[in-house]
Amino acid sequence: MKENAATAEAFCLLTIHTHGQKKDDATAEEVKIEVLHVPKECKPKSKKGDMLNAHYDGYLAADGSKFYCSRTQNEGHPKWFVLGVGQVIKGLDIAMMNMCPGEKRKVTIPPSLAYGLQGYAQGKIPPNATLIFEIELYTVSKGPRSVEAFTQIDMDSDKKLSRDELSHYLKQEFERDGKKRDASVHDSILADIFKKNDHDGDGFISAKEYNVYQHDEL
Ligand SMILES: [Ca+2]
Ligand SMILES: [Ca+2]
């Protein structure tokens, strides 16, 4: 949904500093967040474990060159990822907390919360690079490991997920995103889920086994 001129007046510029472990010297590294746009109805706010869908452009702070643009990758689909679990660089996990759908931010991430001294991708991101991202968030939904998702998958409410329940859930998820997949993909994902999560090998994934992100609600 593109915002139009009428909502442009809602444009505001705030600067929030997070990661506030200030040291005495001036080198304390933190993520700088500028909020470029907040929709009138700003909810739900993102939190750890949520599934986010966002577009972002990445620039090198040193010379302003663009090293990444989600709009030119994956046929221009916004990126999906789970917030706060290390699927993106640490700085982005911090920068995208407490953000609502439609919100836009420009964030500056120090190297220690990005690719550090090593850099990344054969020098595409040089060592010790400060990165700037412009982010537009589209959706915030309950992550794959939320209590809500568990309850939804657990159709007979016995507090454990059977192979049939997960298979049913996967089929629904696949239909939802509409991508064409071979039937074997379904089976191999299902097998993988059990391999990684069914720690005691009883053929069910218990609430405890499912809860890899340590939600405290379960
Ligand atoms: Ca069940
Ligand atoms: Ca089990």
UniProtKB/TrEMBL annotation:
Domain EF-hand residue range list:
185-218
Q: Which Pfam families match?
A: EF-hand_5, FKBP_C
Q: Which reaction does it catalyse?
A: [protein]-peptidylproline (omega=180) = [protein]-peptidylproline (omega=0)
Annotated source species: Mauremys mutica (yellowpond turtle)
Q: What is this protein called?
A: peptidylprolyl isomerase
Its top-level enzyme class, in one word, is isomerase
Which keywords, in A-to-Z order, does the entry hold? Calcium, Endoplasmic reticulum, Glycoprotein, Isomerase, Metal-binding, Repeat, Rotamase, Signal
Record EC number: 5.2.1.8
Q: Per its record, what are the GO molecular function terms?
A: calcium ion binding; peptidyl-prolyl cis-trans isomerase activity
Look up the domain of life of the source. Eukaryota
What sequence ranges are listed for the domain PPIase FKBP-type? Answer: 49-141
Signal recorded as keyword: yes
Keyword Calcium belongs to the record:
yes
Can you cite an annotated GO cellular component? endoplasmic reticulum
